Amino acid sequence: MAKNFKNNAITSRDEDFAQWYTDICKKAELMDYSSVKGFIIYLPYSYAMWENIQHYMDKKFKETGHENVYMPMLIPESLLEKEKDHVEGFAPECAVVTKGGMNELEDPLVIRPTSETLFCELYAKIVNSYRDLPKKYNQWCSVVRWEKTTRPFLRGSEFLWQEGHTIHADEKEAKEETLLMRDIYNQTAKDLLAIPMLTGRKTDKEKFAGAEETYTVEALMHDGKALQSGTSHYFGQGFAEAFNMQFLDKDNKQKYVYQTSWGVSTRLLGAIIMVHGDDNGLVLPPRVAPIQAVIVLIQSQKEGVLEKAYALKKQLEEAGIRVKVDDSDKTPGYKFADAEMRGIPIRIELGPRDIEQGHCIIAKRNDGTKRTVSIDETLGDYVSSLIDTIHEEMYRKAKDFLDSHITMVTSFDEIGKVLDEKGGYVKTYWSGELASELKIKEAFQATSRCIAEDEYPPEGAIDPADNKPAKYIIYYARAY
Amino acid sequence: MAKNFKNNAITSRDEDFAQWYTDICKKAELMDYSSVKGFIIYLPYSYAMWENIQHYMDKKFKETGHENVYMPMLIPESLLEKEKDHVEGFAPECAVVTKGGMNELEDPLVIRPTSETLFCELYAKIVNSYRDLPKKYNQWCSVVRWEKTTRPFLRGSEFLWQEGHTIHADEKEAKEETLLMRDIYNQTAKDLLAIPMLTGRKTDKEKFAGAEETYTVEALMHDGKALQSGTSHYFGQGFAEAFNMQFLDKDNKQKYVYQTSWGVSTRLLGAIIMVHGDDNGLVLPPRVAPIQAVIVLIQSQKEGVLEKAYALKKQLEEAGIRVKVDDSDKTPGYKFADAEMRGIPIRIELGPRDIEQGHCIIAKRNDGTKRTVSIDETLGDYVSSLIDTIHEEMYRKAKDFLDSHITMVTSFDEIGKVLDEKGGYVKTYWSGELASELKIKEAFQATSRCIAEDEYPPEGAIDPADNKPAKYIIYYARAY
């Protein structure tokens, strides 16, 4: 740890956001680079956050009737090619195994970029009757997609994720599943990560390779760029036909299943950094933070200070709080800066004088405020409730930022102006035509993020890009 | 599920053990085959067991100061080649990626067969001073080793495992770590899986590629063959020198670190099947069983039966028990056979007459005994304590089997005779010479499983294979 803090300063967020991001990734010891380009090492601090996300989401998945499985990491090229749109989307990004056990392989194997084809092959084999439906499987794994430009957590040649794959006897149930998972992603972002999401449906241009509909949750970073943070796809019967996933229905007829898939990845870690972080480092939402409170000792060599700190730690742990004591031989100033860089939500300062007076000082990372608090049997409750308060404050701040960065625009030039000057989302009217999307992308380097689901243009509204009658409300942004 | 049970019969264990094993893997819906040879699909029922093993062990790892990380799945061939013994051991089993993103790679990449080299590269980079030590990282992932002959869970081209990699400032601490992990594996097998292990040190011939010492835990299958179930390696400074892992010690001198690694895999699932299973299917140790108790309804269409079953389920769940209600429209006989095939430790039978009389019938999968038990507020405690009882009974039975299949032998011919007629372990004297091991392997197709750690030959004892003075007590067996 020590050597990373020789120079604690990081680049200012508003001066060079990209460099600020990289500085935090390194100085908070979230990741390191490996000798293979685009393949990062998830160090304990970021991996512990991913574990917290996993535990939270896995519980939700299981409560909603999903089961975990593990599928092979290698897919025969011939299998990947079975669904035309799908292979077109993924083939250019594949890592291909051509040798195994010293021999050349006849059918090369692709490291999974996603596992639709494997789940289809399995389901085609094990499902015969309506009694076997639905099947709702999920897996936690890593996938490989060969990327030219990579950034830690945001875009990598390998990343960790979960991928759910479900099949259903009817269309309605499959569509409900697609939306349910979108809702679970949205709720997780809100309740665990304190991140408000813009949600909606992707345009045909932006949807997943092979999907009929893709729903997305999109987070807004501090620099005004959007980050696609989770997607849920409805496939209809496209894969079912390509892979012959049929079942005998109650009416004694063979039918094709309806299918969904959905995933979130370690991109969420990037979202946490870029939504909440500041010029002193990470600011972690307390429910996902590996360490929720750090006890920093002032004059730890004084008799009784260390003992009191560990007694406090025990007390707080019994209240369900994740606590660390910083009993290193560094100065308090160094320890404060270290705790700030790592974004630990609550800092508890404890010195001999505090102990004498029966209190400690509690500082909140998210707004820097400090308060003197009595050390007694209510401290656990106090800190627990502070965790909720901090969570709410962080969510509220991010929500205000999001709300103030959605700008309704109805003229073409204004779209570019808002993106340049203010960033965030441009909300506008859309004809539903690809040409309109392409024109905006070309002119302003912005992509459509999603189509609003519950809001439609007023009578007579016009798409500002192609001047055709508007059918939808759509959101554009520059994005990661 | 239904279609797998049209014919419920499985091959008898004593008639054809290999076929019995495969039958169980399929009929208990533990796994399925994929279209890539040697790569299996872990279906929900086996994956849930693996999750239970993960949760149990991960807690132990964290309690003993280990942290989880995630390393890249791809290793440059050039990096793998840095430690000579290591690459010799693994190169023949590697899957090699030669194409990425449509381009040929200059330095081919190997899918990790194990990750020593990656951890070494990281540690060399992030460790400078004695203050940075120890580093105790672990990861849960899958690895790929190209195998010619594969069997579900026992030997596959891809398997799930955990691999711990630690570095230490001194030899003593590293050796203690090696033994601590061996102990954790041994305890997990005993306390979670009800499997007694034979533990000891591997001979030089059988140790891990690149290790100075390998400790092993070995389980004994019902057919008398051994299964290596977990290993813990002490590397000394071999990798440290190859990878230049140095640190500045307290005495201001640059020194090489001392290193360990250790792993267990989904082989443990194979051990569970082959230690405890019988001719009616799986017999699961209750602490690892995904479903600990199944409530089977008799005449479920009768009023109140279903409601009572779900009330019971809720009551048992509140006592921390994993319960399922089988409310399918199958016959009770079918449901009983199904629960037996899946090895569910406790079956609770519930019909209208039982409810009237305020009791239910509880059957134990491990010994087939049944008992009538009152349905009242003590039922949760009763079932919880029954779980412990079943665990103890299963462990005791397996321990008796192990103990009665360790045969002390002091003549060469007797070794073969015992292996042929009785199976299990032959315990004998060893000179410490490779030639002795090779002679036994050649003559009897048995490998040394481990050297006893706390027991030595008496004065004058002779190795029966090479007639040289004995230095060690050693165990041989035919093995998976």
From TrEMBL, chains A, B:
GO MF term set: ATP binding; catalytic activity, acting on a protein; proline-tRNA ligase activity; transferase activity
GO CC annotation: aminoacyl-tRNA synthetase multienzyme complex; cytoplasm
The keyword Ligase appears for this protein: yes
Signal peptide: none
Main EC class the enzyme belongs to: ligase
Gene3D superfamilies, alphabetized: Anticodon-binding domain, Bira Bifunctional Protein, Domain 2, C-terminal domain of ProRS
Keywords: Aminoacyl-tRNA synthetase, ATP-binding, Cytoplasm, Ligase, Nucleotide-binding, Protein biosynthesis
Family annotation (PROSITE patterns): AA_TRNA_LIGASE_II
Entry superkingdom: Bacteria
A single GO BP: prolyl-tRNA aminoacylation
Enzyme Commission number: 6.1.1.15
Catalytic activity line of the entry: tRNA(Pro) + L-proline + ATP = L-prolyl-tRNA(Pro) + AMP + diphosphate
Localization per record: Cytoplasm
Family as reported in the entry's similarity comment: Belongs to the class-II aminoacyl-tRNA synthetase family. ProS type 3 subfamily.
Role this protein plays: Catalyzes the attachment of proline to tRNA(Pro) in a two-step reaction: proline is first activated by ATP to form Pro-AMP and then transferred to the acceptor end of tRNA(Pro).
Written domain comment of the UniProt record: Consists of three domains: the N-terminal catalytic domain, the anticodon-binding domain and the C-terminal extension.
Record's subunit section: Homodimer.
Protein name: Proline--tRNA ligase
Organism of this sequence: Eggerthia catenaformis OT 569 = DSM 20559
